């Protein structure tokens, strides 16, 4: 009996000892997992990987540095440089990064539409997608632009990075009235309306590839344009010559008389006065064999060719 009692006591003691050891081991494992979790969350790579899950695919250097206040700025920058080398992110502007998503394919080229809204807000600039880029999104399939064009109310320089060329064009005043929005993966992006796109193409004709290119793009855009939607303020910041050239191209070159008539009426109601202007500004218009379109006061000094 004494032997059995001793055996039972030893068994109970060993059981308690094993239980305590298991409990201590479990605490050790939990502490280790918690430490690893904290360390993981302190990694810049982990933070970047988590951003798309929260609907964010771009960020600024300032955001990254603020996210890790305990890390030296140089450490954060080195981490971002490693991610860039690995192709996980791209530096699309000084101090601004876009995250490379799997859907971008093997080359990992990030479409500017996916970060342009965030970028321009970061730069403190008003903007809209414009010119040939806007025309392509609005349905003019005559031209696939090789660059991404925006109009901004802040002077910005052209950036050519990671096979993407962003070309900003400066305009002093931007109003939202004649803009529309299209959706990117993470934001609503401002883009010029068909009417504003048409006048911008003519106003910035060199940036748009020249008059032949502009006329070709306008041919594809014409069915989307409705000048009934514009008011007198539409013409407030537009030189009369740009209106004249657009009207001439629509009427004389594209045979879009209804559109041209509406533009003419709206321009006259806004108080615009037409004066003789060459169709192509940087060409000689004094030669005697140049004809003149009386309605639009355009000196036809160039023969337009539409693709």
Total E-strand runs = 12
Strand % is 15-25%
Q: What is Rg?
A: 31 Å
CATH class of the largest domain: Alpha Beta
The profile of the biggest β sheet is: 4 strands, mixed
- What's the CATH topology name of the largest domain? Beta Polymerase, domain 2
Whole-number average pLDDT? 86
Helix-strand makeup class: alpha+beta
Low-confidence region ranges: 33-41
Any guess at the CATH architecture of the largest domain? Answer: 2-Layer Sandwich
* Mass-distribution shape: elongated
End-to-end distance: 109 Å
Contiguous helical run count = 10
What's the domain count?
A: 2
Notes on the protein architecture:
By secondary structure, the chain is α+β, with helices and mostly antiparallel strands. It has two domains: 2-104, Arc Repressor Mutant, subunit A (Orthogonal Bundle); 112-300, 2-Layer Sandwich (Beta Polymerase, domain 2). It contains ten helices and twelve strands. It has helices at 2-41, 44-50, 61-67, 73-85, 116-122, 131-137, 194-203, 211-221, 240-253, 257-269; strands at 58-60, 89-93, 96-99, 127-129, 148-152, 159-161, 164-170, 179-183, 188-192, 277-278, 291-293, 298-300. It has a four-stranded mixed beta sheet with strand order 4-5-7-6. Strands 1-3-2 form a three-stranded antiparallel beta sheet. A hairpin with a 4-residue loop joins strand 11 (291-293) and strand 12 (298-300). Helix 6 runs antiparallel to helix 7, helix 7 runs antiparallel to helix 8 (211-221) and helix 9 (240-253) packs antiparallel against helix 10 (257-269). The longest helix has 40 residues, at 2-41. The termini are far apart.
């Amino acid at each position: 009996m004494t032997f059995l009692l001793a055996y039972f006591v030893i068994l109970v003691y060993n059981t308690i000892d094993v239980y305590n050891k298991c409990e201590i081991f479990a605490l050790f494992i939990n502490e280790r997992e918690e430490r690893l979790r904290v360390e993981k969350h302190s990694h810049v790579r982990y933070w970047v990987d988590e951003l798309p899950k929260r609907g964010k695919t771009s960020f600024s250097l300032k955001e990254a540095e603020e996210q890790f206040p305990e890390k030296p700025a140089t450490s954060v920058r080195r981490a971002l440089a490693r991610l860039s080398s690995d192709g996980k992110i791209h530096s699309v502007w000084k101090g601004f990064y876009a995250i490379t998503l799997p859907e971008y394919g093997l080359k990992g080229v990030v479409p500017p539409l996916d970060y342009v809204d965030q970028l321009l807000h970061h730069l403190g600039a008003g903007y809209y997608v414009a010119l040939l880029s806007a025309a392509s999104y609005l349905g003019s399939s005559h031209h696939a632009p090789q660059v991404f064009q925006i109009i901004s109310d802040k002077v910005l320089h052209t950036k050519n990075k990671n096979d993407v060329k962003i070309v900003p064009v400066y305009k002093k005043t931007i109003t939202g009235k004649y803009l529309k929005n299209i959706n990117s993966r993470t934001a609503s992006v401002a883009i010029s309306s068909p009417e504003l796109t048409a006048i911008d193409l003519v106003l910035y004709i060199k940036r748009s590839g020249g008059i032949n290119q502009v006329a070709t793009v306008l041919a594809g855009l014409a069915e989307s344009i409705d000048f009934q939607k514009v008011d007198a303020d539409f013409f407030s910041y537009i030189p009369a010559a740009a209106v004249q050239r657009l009207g001439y191209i629509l009427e004389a070159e594209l045979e879009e008389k209804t559109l041209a008539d509406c533009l003419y009426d709206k321009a006259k109601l806004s108080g615009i006065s037409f004066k003789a202007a060459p169709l192509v500004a940087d060409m000689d218009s004094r030669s005697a064999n140049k004809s003149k379109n009386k309605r639009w006061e355009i000196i036809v000094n160039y023969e337009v060719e539409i693709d």
